[in-house]
Amino acid sequence: MKADFSDGSFRPALQRFFDNVKALPARFVASAARNGLPASDRTRSTFVFGNVFLHIHPVRVHRWSLRWTTTLGLGVASMAAFLVTLATGVLLMFYYKPYPDAAYQSMQDILFVVPSGRLIRNLHRWAANVMVVTVFLHMARVFYTASYRSPREFNWVVGIGLFAVTLGLAFTGYLLPWDQLAYWAITIGANIAQSPREVTDALGITSFFDIGGLQKLLLLGSDTVGEEALIRFYLFHVMLLPLGLACLLAVHFWRIRKDGGLARPADADSRADCPAEDTYPVFTEVPAKTYHLAALVRGRSPAVGRGPEATLPSMPHLFYAEAAVFMLTVLACLFLSLLSDAPLKELANPLVPENPAKAPWYFLGLRERVSSWAFMGGVGIPAVVLLGLALIPYLDRETAGTGEWFGGPGGRRLVAKAACVGTSSVLVLEAAAIRFGWIREWFPHVPQLVVTLLNPGTLLALVYGAYSTWLVKRYDSTRAGALGLFTCFLCGFAVLTVIGTFFRGPNWNFYWSPAHWPVH
Ligand code: HEM
């Protein structure tokens, strides 16, 4: 008989086998986690860089970054919402069929036949809404804390890409149920894509330079919303855009590390109350130490001069906070999904227009501006705004206020005043256009180019531009101008969204309440 003497005793093989069975769970955990419970500074570190999912985080994180007010958890909430849409989207794909004659039926099956199908669909829809909101607020947080500045300029640009892809996902997903709402909202979207024709027609060059027609064709694959459009939207929605988002997210997170963690004020070390030295001992003091790519290349890394003195181990401080935000976001999506069902109207009918055809609420601000001036409202101004947003870090090269809420000359007071200017100008222009109409109503034969260039949307953009130029001069600061412009556009967008969502009815006419809509 063979025996095991490794522990100095004699035990038969069967006994050893049972011992192994007993020890299996503990050995499995030890083989996966290797370093046991993260109880010391050393094991807390190996917990981070020994784990494929966690090692994107730093081992230690600055106290300033851990304050709730620094980020409000919005980046993590965006990521959580994205993961919920991803998981529920994959589940929906088991049943959804991307063909016009089957799509609507498959949505009905998901709602009425597939077990928990309705909940999964609601979760997908609500998580997408939550994602749009949190991504938008996250962008605003980064802007208002001036965290886009060097060395984070490029990450801001990557963020603008994330923002655009997020909206692209929302837009392409809207067509898939193939109901009346989807069909007619996307028809309007496609007409907006075609709207540069307004300009090429006015210039008489459409016959050889039809950028609007090309855009519409690329989007729909044909003249009207049909099966080519549905398959294109499906491919974008489930494949190309999620892949694009995943690639951009990888760069985004990697850059946060490489840019030296989150932005913080220059004196954050002294302002973030540091832990006592014996709570989390650190291995050295600034400036005795420097971080650099030791002896590999010349030059400094962004972390030079930043010691670990004001930092805490990521495990547990950062991870517990992230887990809390993550769970809260999932809970919020779940709660909303149980509370309210995602809409599904009748089967799409190309012969019966939906009136009003309303896109998702976050596009209704844009739709409000597009109502009579498709090109400037739907393409011209959004393109300028997106480009302007992307260029902010390269145009504001100041350093005062980095990492602080409303940091920079003017601060909170400036933002409050800009909010008043932004809101009142959009209200005045909207009220005037609703009450008195616009150039086309006054002068029916005026050339289209005049209407295209001179409409409430362009006027509003001009007012905002002029106000922020004045702010630049008044405070002698580009950051002051940026704060003013961003706040004005934010307020303008919010007001237009509210009007588009609640006060527009059939033919996009203004109504105080849906109860006043004409009965037909
Ligand atoms: C799917 C969308 C996005 C996700 C999941 C995401 C995620 C994150 C996370 C987790 C952080 C760490 C700090 C935090 O939690 O707030 C972060 C930081 C950052 N994000 Fe995003 N983000 C997204 C979109 C954006 C957008 C739209 C912008 C701006 C246009 C942006 C710009 C930045 C910048 C500049 C930082 C560094 C901020 C700092 O140093 O304080 N991100 N992002």
Per-chain topology:
Layout: H1 13-33, H2 41-49, E1 60-62, H3 63-66, H4 68-71, H5 74-93, H6 100-112, H7 117-144, H8 153-175, H9 180-194, H10 196-203, H11 211-220, H12 227-258, H13 268-271, E2 311-313, H14 314-339, H15 364-370, H16 374-395, H17 411-436, H18 439-442, H19 448-453, H20 456-475, H21 478-502
Antiparallel strand pairs: 1-2
The chain binds protoporphyrin IX containing FE.
Protoporphyrin IX containing FE (HEM) is lined by residues 71, 74-76, 78-79, 82, 135, 138-139, 142, 147-148, 152, 155-156, 159-160, 162-163, 166, 249, 252, 256, 262-263.
Q: How many strand segments?
A: 2
Cα-to-Cα separation, first versus last residue: 94 Å
Please provide the ordered H/E string of secondary-structure elements.
HHEHHHHHHHHHHHEHHHHHHHH
Give the distinct bound molecules.
Answer: protoporphyrin IX containing FE
Rounded Rg: 28 Å
- What is the overall pLDDT average? 89
Number of helices: 21
Q: Structural class, please?
A: mainly alpha
CATH topology of the largest domain: Cytochrome Bc1 Complex, Chain C
Enumerate the spans where pLDDT stays under 50 for 5 or more consecutive residues: 284-289
CATH fourth-tier homologous superfamily of the largest domain: Cytochrome Bc1 Complex, Chain C
Binned, the helix content reads 55-70%
CATH architecture of the largest domain: Up-down Bundle
Summarize the biggest pleated sheet.
Answer: 2 strands, antiparallel
CATH class of the largest domain: Mainly Alpha
Strand fraction equals under 5%
Number of domains: 2
Strands of the largest sheet, in order across it?
1-2
Note the overall shape.
globular
